[in-house]
Fold this protein.
Amino acid sequence: MYEFVIIIALLLPVAWWTGFRNGKGVAKGKSIKDRLGFSKKYFVGLNYLLNEEADKAIDTFVSMLEVDSETVETHLALGNLFRRRGEVDRAIRIHQNLIARPSLSGRHRKMSLMELGYDYMAGGLLDRAENIFKELMLDQQHNQASLKQLLLIYQQTKDWQNAIKTSEKLQINASASLKSEIAHFYCELAEVRLYEHVPKEAISYVKKALSVDSGCARATLIRGDIEYSLSRYKQAIKAYRELIKQDVELLPEAITKINSSFNQLNDKKGLALFYQTAIAAGAGISCILNYAEEIQLTENDQAAAEYIVRKMSSHPSVKGLLKLIELHLKYASDSARPSLIMLQEVVSKLLDNKPIYHCHQCGFDSKTMFWQCPGCKNWGSVKPIQGIEGE
Ligand SMILES: [Zn+2]
């Protein structure tokens, strides 16, 4: 804080001298008294500074800066510095003060408005920020930056319809496509409708998501969930089969419903075949263990254990090890049992403390699935962890 005020104190004479040197002070008929007034305030501010009253010092220094074309940039720089330091109220005051000046040029007014919009964003005043960016998006120079801010607002407020409209406008001039994001917004709408028991509309949003991004695995996953909720198990399985082709890493998200759908249809062979196909396509340990359970039921424990051991040689996994311990415990001798139980507890605790999901963009780890990463805000970058401690 203290260093920051010193920067302002040093900045002020530079801004004042620049204006004075250009003859502005004289040309506008400013008297020596006015200029001395500046000096007096400056020393009052310095006095506050020396007494370590930083808040009063800042207010004094800022009040000294007259707003004219020479000092607008200094005001903007000061406002930005306050915002970056988390002093949003001060930043808002400075930018509002700028905008209130009738003499401000159109270009500087828009620049100040933009900064005020950023201040409101930083302060969580999203409705006020929205109004500003809606106005500025009509200006060619601020169009893209305003649309980006509006998109952030609509995602934060879960206003998915407006998020879609804004993304569509934004991607007209953007270098990168936003189709993946738009598909996720449709998926959000589909999930809301599914939750509200309006499956017809949910399906319609899933279709829109896939029409924007045919590779949107999340849309296919939701389609499966909608069909499952309607007890249309064959259609649910069809969607989950499509998921194998689109993104086999997401299959663990549907495993409970996959098992249940086949069980409802009393189709054990179909379930085994489903997992065989998924595993051949690269599905992880969750599918391998589910398939092993089918072997356990249709054949015996030994066949299931042999299958897991075979798979573990090419796909080492802590979850697989835990299942093997469980199978061996059934047949363990009295002398081996305590060691196996201890090993089972240790491996269980090891898994309990591990995250399940990982963001490929920023490295964020969690035990919960997020379609939008809470760390980097990217969509679809969080996936089940692969490898020995994951899938
Ligand atoms: Zn991330």
Remarks:
- The pocket of zinc ion is lined by residues 359, 361-362, 364, 373, 375-376, 378, 381 (CB under 6 Å).
- The first strand starts at residue 357 and ends at 359.
